[in-house]
Amino acid sequence: MIKTAKAPANIAFIKYWGKKDEKLRLPMNNSISMNLSEVYTTTSVEFSKNLKSDTLKIDGKFPEDKEKERVVKHLNLIRSLAKTDLKARVESRNNFPKGTGLASSASGFAALTLAASGAAGLNLSEKELSIIARLGSGSACRSLPDGFAEWKAGDSSETSYAYSLYPPNYWDICDVIAIVGEASKKVSSTEGHVLAESSPFFRARISGMPKKVNEIKKALKEKDFTRFGEILEEEAVNMHAVMMTSKPALYYWLPETLITIISIIKWRDEGLESYFTIDAGPNVHVICQAKYAPRIKRRLVKLNGVKRVVINKPSTGARLI
Ligand code: PMV
């Protein structure tokens, strides 16, 4: 039985950076995100007695050893739940460049979890799927539920999962992504999380998290776009300050990242309201009210170093197709 799943990438408004349990991928803090309509992974999985080993294809290529190992480990987890030892054929496609901070591991592991568990005959709840996806890549747990999601940090594997705060049509906002770098990053987020604690600012960041999470949830509830934007922008800079001050230091930004940031602030001062956020990569996510998205795109494409611009609406979570 072949199962195919489509899962969105998600953008974190309150970010996950640093783990309290490395193996279980339990984060230090709750995080808040939105699923993205135009950046996603589609994955097909089939378990078969005709296969001698797992056969993987990602974006038409056989993955390198490290990537393959991570996928096989995830398949092993699903096999153990389904009590099968059949090998799998996995074919996965991203409609965007992977490994550039556009959350390909989030959409990738969400799609793999849903397709593989379905193909193995498991009938899991959204919460169970979110927990399993988290074990593949932390932020993947937020790509299962619909729309705007909160990942509860929890204190065990069973209590660390994401759920939907609001459906996609709750709020008419967009994430206009300015793609300034398409090369794969040198330090993966999995490696980066381990470094977080070495920043002198990490403890301060974590101690302010519960308040920040409550404040953004309040702004989301009240649809207070200005407050919402101020919090998510401050949060992005806060996380990158920790990255840049860890040992060794992690610079995910490119010069074009800063050009984009400064332009957004300037346009805002002139009356075009939007706020930026950045995950583990150089690309800038511009959060705005939907009515301003085309105008922001027109301006972004003219900036030095901006290669492509993608307008995203809030999206549903992972689905079997
Ligand atoms: O799930 P990971 O290990 O790819 O980490 C994601 C880290 C950030 O994208 C920077 C933040 C987040 O919460 O998505």
Summarize the helices and strands and which ones pair or pack.
Blueprint: E1 2-14, E2 19-21, E3 26-27, E4 31-48, E5 55-58, H1 65-82, E6 87-94, H2 104-119, H3 126-136, E7 148-152, E8 161-166, E9 173-179, H4 189-196, H5 202-207, H6 209-222, H7 225-244, H8 255-269, E10 275-277, E11 284-289, H9 293-300, E12 308-312, E13 319-320
Parallel strand pairs: 5-6
Antiparallel strand pairs: 1-4, 1-13, 2-3, 4-6, 4-7, 7-8, 9-11, 9-12, 10-11
Helix pairs in contact: 1-2, 2-3, 6-7
Bound molecules: (3R)-3-hydroxy-3-methyl-5-(phosphonooxy)pentanoic acid.
Walk me through what this model shows.
The two termini are 13 Å apart. The protein is of the alpha+beta class and 321 residues long. The strands form three sheets. Strands 1, 4, 5, 6, 7, 8 and 13 form a seven-stranded mixed beta sheet that branches. The protein has helices at residues 65-82, 104-119, 126-136, 189-196, 202-207, 209-222, 225-244, 255-269, 293-300; strands at 2-14, 19-21, 26-27, 31-48, 55-58, 87-94, 148-152, 161-166, 173-179, 275-277, 284-289, 308-312, 319-320. (3R)-3-hydroxy-3-methyl-5-(phosphonooxy)pentanoic acid is lined by residues 12, 15-17, 31, 105-106, 137-139, 189-190, 279-280.
Helical residue percent band: 25-40%
Mean pLDDT: 96
Q: Quick one: biggest sheet?
A: 7 strands, mixed
What proportion strand?
25-35%
User: How many independent structural domains?
Assistant: 2
The CATH topology of the largest domain: Ribosomal Protein S5, domain 2
* SSE order: EEEEEHEHHEEEHHHHHEEHEE
Distance separating the two termini: 13 Å
Shape: globular
